[in-house]
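Curious: can you check?
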Amino acid sequence: MVELIRDNPIAAVIVLCEFGLWALLGAGLVSRYLLRLRRLGVVLLAAIPLTDVVLVVAVLLDLHRGAATTAIHGLAGVYLGFSVAFGPTMVRWADRHFAYRFAGGPKPEKPAKGSMEKYKAVWQEWYRVVNAAAIASVTLLGLIFTVAGPEQEGTLYWWIGRVWLVVGIWFLAGPAFEDRPSRSERDAPQQVTR
């Protein structure tokens, strides 16, 4: 792992961006709930997308200077897509759990199995995966058409195909076989498991 990061600066940037995401999230929640510095907490949480900007700029500069395109460059585009699509949901999840654990907030509720809420949640998660794949694809195509040379395009196109393969697998593992509640179950008051 150390050799990969040393030999490929984009791998190091991905690791640093992931570390930065979690550091900003942790610092934002601690500031908000434990230190009672709400504004600072909001600023730190709002800064999380800057890690994505840093990653995109690093990949653009690396490809622009003529670096050989590797799987890491494609992975950076995929990372960006999933970070943008799942980031806000992850921050809300962490915020609810942190508030419950450390600030007396309400206990986060989980949709009951077989409920309409659970059914909707499974589909919403898959839509986020589709969104992530779309963002990753647009990012990779942007790299292909702006900075990648002909010898660099193949690897980036390969990643576009793989990200859509993930969408298909996620569909089969999730919403494809999720039972839709019957009409009577949909109309009944929903119970939430804790």
